[in-house]
Amino acid sequence: MSDSLVADNPELSRVELTVDGALAGILAYDVIGETVVLRHTVVKEEYGDHGWAAVLVRGALDILRMGNLRVWPACAMVRRVIAAEPEYLPLVADQDPEEAVEADRVAEAVEADRVAEAVEADRVSEVVERSTTTGA
Question: Distances from the Cα of 84 to the Cαs of 20, 54, 76, 98, in angstroms?
């Protein structure tokens, strides 16, 4: 049996799998707010077809569960592991955090437009008021 270790490498935004001391695979991620988006799982060819990708994903999910973090499974391998092992389902966020961020950006832009329109309306009112009081 091979000796394996799954560890977070936050400097590179990835979880790493080492097998017998050698890097065997990675699971790339991004943190958006309180959610970790699990992007892509890669296992070196020589470690393929031995279940190491599932070991990597389970290890990453266990690390995230200990940190009370939510996940968004953008990676197909992560989705397969979660589907096969429902104990990981409570980790899954209710919404894609990138869509939530985009919705927030749109709402902020709409509000900024409303403020700009209100400011412009006030300026127009001031000009009209000045012109009527000065007789211009």
Answer: 27, 10, 12, 25
